[in-house]
Every structure is written in C-alpha cells, then in structure tokens.
Amino acid sequence: NGLKQCLSEFRQQLAWVERLDVTSGQVVGPVSQSASSKDAVDPENDFQREMSFYRQAQEAVLEALPRLRKLQVPTRRPDDYFAEMAKSDQQMQKIRQKLKSKQEAMERSEKAKQLRAMRKYGKKVQTEILQRRQKEKKNMLNAVKKYQKGLSDKLDFLDEEQTLSQGNKKGSASQRTKKGPNAKRRYKNQKFGFGGKKKGSKWNTKESFNDVSSFRSKVAHNKGPGKAGKGGKKALNKRPGKRARQKMKSRAR
C-alpha cells in the first residue's frame, strides 16, 4: 500500500506522445512456435533469448508507428538532420586502419593459399608425368626382352619411340619458330645482312647492264672537282721508298 501511494504521488498524467511507452507481451516467433506454451523459451539458450527480445521490440514498433502517424508525428529523419557522432574522428580513424590491416592480412592469406594450391597442383602434374614416363620405359623394356627371347616378333615399340622422337623434334622446332631470334641475332642481321647466297651477288644482270642512270661523265673522264696534275690525272700520295724511309729514321734519332 505504501508503494502504491508513493507511485500515485509522483505519477504524472501526461499524454502518450510525451511518454512513448509501449508494453507488449511475449511474441510467439518461429523459434518458439513449436512450443506448447509461451514460457517455452529457454533462458539459458542465448539465441532463443535474444530472438524473443528482438521480436518483442519489433511488435512494440509495429504497434507504435500507426499511433504516431495518427498523431501526425514524423517518424523519419530529415535529410538535413545533423547529430554529433558518439566516437571521435581519431577513434574512427583507428577503426578504419584496423579494418584495412585486417583486409590486407586476409588478402595475403588468400594469395598464399592460392600459391600453395598451385605448387601442389604443379607437383601433382610433375609426378604424373614421371610415372607415365617410367611406365612407358618399363613397357618398352618388357617388349625388348620378349623380342630378344623370341616370345614376340613385333617391333611396334621401335615405331612408337620413333614417333615420340619426331614429335619432340617438331615441338622444339615449332617452339623455336614461335620464339623468333633474340635481340643479338636481330642486331647482327641488321648490321651484316640476313644470310643467303653471297657468291656472284655483284655480277651484272641484263637489267643492271641496261641501267645507266648512275653514270657520271665527269667522274668517268677524270674531269670532276679535286682533280689535279697533267692531263687531269689525280695526284696520288705515294709511299716513300725504302732508302727515303731509312734517312727519315736516322734524322729522327
């Protein structure tokens, strides 16, 4: 009785829009639908307990929204609404850096996992190739032994070996043609030519014999510039004789 009297003394008779209190009972959800009573939620089960709280809050919101709209109270935040954040910019920056470092660590871990998978696959392929080669070698040796002992007169293993060698040669030749010459070879080709026939490359042909476009009469008759001497002959710088060279050496000493 005393508690009820105190409650009646400090209770304020205000409108619901000032109080915004909504009371709802336990809501039966998918988790507790199979239960026979409303008190079937196990309090020790965290998932069921949190789900019951969530559904009770959802039921209160669904009950309060129509009443607020009826009273013409806005329930959505306006676009120009400004509120100070609870956390400072430094704290948010630390959180961003932590999230970024965590994401980078996950990416590095994923790359390392992919590399390990690729190495494992490459090792598996290499093992399969070695096993296949050993098997082929073993089959060929068995065929040779049978032929030597006279148990078989077939020489198919020789044909298989020949086809394999030809296939390897063709593969290597195709690889060479696809690869092309290296930089050193291209430089030498550009400097010295591209090989081919060189003997008789300067011989005249019918077309070169009839082509007189490069003929210069002044050059042919020693009448061009820089000609000196009698009869237009070019003055040649001849090497001095042996005696003259010896005299020059003795003077130099």
UniProtKB/TrEMBL annotation:
Keywords, alphabetical: Coiled coil, Nucleus, Ribosome biogenesis
Record keyword Cytoplasm present: no
Compartments, as annotated in UniProt: Nucleus, Nucleolus
Matching InterPro entries: Ebp2
Region entry Disordered, spans: 27-47, 98-125, 159-253
Amino acid composition bias (Basic and acidic residues), ranges on this chain: 101-113
A UniProt-annotated Pfam family: Ebp2
Biased composition (Basic residues): 114-123, 176-189, 230-253
Location, primary (coarse class): nucleus
GO BP annotation list: ribosomal large subunit biogenesis; rRNA processing
Any one Gene Ontology cellular component term annotated for this protein: nucleolus
Keyword Coiled coil: yes
Positions with biased composition (Polar residues): 27-37, 163-175
Family: Belongs to the EBP2 family.
Protein's job: Required for the processing of the 27S pre-rRNA.
The name this protein goes by in its record: Putative rRNA-processing protein EBP2
